[in-house]
Design a protein that fits this description.
The chain has three helices and two strands, in the order ββααα.
Length: about 90
């Protein structure tokens, strides 16, 4: 799966920035592909077992995207006071 922190898009910046929900949604196809490769790498004798391993991992990846969306909605905007964000 995708790491929770990335290099922030600038090379040699040395700072870590959290992944945003927009970035996770933009790279959703890549995330699904990586999850599928990991599921294929897990030991499983047949296609049915591989699918049983793949589906929960896809669900966890998708739920992490939605969790990021909900967390970002609850955070106040940078120029907005903290009390007005929840209204």
């Amino acid at each position: 799966m995708l790491p929770s922190l990335s290099k922030g898009g600038r090379r040699n910046s040395g700072t870590l920035t959290p992944l945003t929900s927009a970035r996770l949604r933009k790279n959703r196809r890549l995330g699904y592909f990586i999850v599928a490769v990991v599921a294929l790498g897990l030991p499983g004798p047949d296609l049915y077992t591989t699918l049983l391993e793949l589906l929960p991992m896809w669900a966890l990846f998708e739920s992490s995207i939605w969790l990021a969306v909900f967390v970002e909605r609850r955070q106040p905007a940078p120029n907005e006071p903290a009390g007005e964000a929840l209204l």
